[in-house]
Amino acid sequence: MHNKYKKDGLVAFSCALDDPEKKGIQEKLLKFLKEKKATFGNFLLNETDVDWQKNLKIDGPPAVFIFDRDGKPAKKFDAGTESFTYADVEKVVAELMKKK
Fold first, then answer.
1. Ramachandran region of residue 59, left (φ > 0), alpha (ψ -120 to 50) or beta?
2. Is the peptide bond before 62 cis (omega within 30 degrees of 0)?
3. Beta carbons of 95 and 8 less than 8 angstroms apart
4. For residue range 6-22, what is the model confidence (pLDDT) as tens digits?
5. CATH 3.90.1150.10 corresponds to the domain 2-98
6. Of 2-11, 22-31, 41-50, 82-91, minimum mean pLDDT range
7. Nearest-5° Cα angle at 56, 52 to 58
């Protein structure tokens, strides 16, 4: 989706919630991101489960937050509260991309 819409202004990033102290996790995540050709910003959150659940207001990953061009929240998909697909996410993004 990043490659498809970046020319229209889409900014994407990923955030892994794995324990950064876990042996080999950074290498595992890097391998995954390379396989997926994730050429956008990728971060490894350094917070406890309790902290990110409270701060992000999600039950757990995966979760997708979509913001409009003004940086205002447009939609949140949270696997803890609803099931969603890539197509569900892209539908919202495609509609927002039409608004300039």
1. alpha
2. yes
3. no
4. 999 899 999 998 888 88
5. no
6. 41-50
7. 90
CA distances from 25 to 22, 47, 54, 82 (A): 6, 15, 23, 27
Sign of the torsion angle spanned by Cα atoms 86, 88, 90, 96 = negative
pTM beyond 0.85: the answer is: no
DSSP 7: G
| One-letter amino acid of 23 | K
> Contacts for 69-75 with beta carbons within 8 Å, 24 or more apart?
69/9, 69/96, 69/99, 69/100
- State the Cα–Cα distance between residues 97 and 4, nearest whole angstrom: 11
Kindly tell me the burial class for residue 58, based on how many C-beta atoms sit within 10 Å of its own C-beta (0-12, 13-18, 19 or more).
buried
Looking up tokens 């997708």 gives 64
Q: How far apart are CA 68 and CA 77, in angstroms?
A: 15
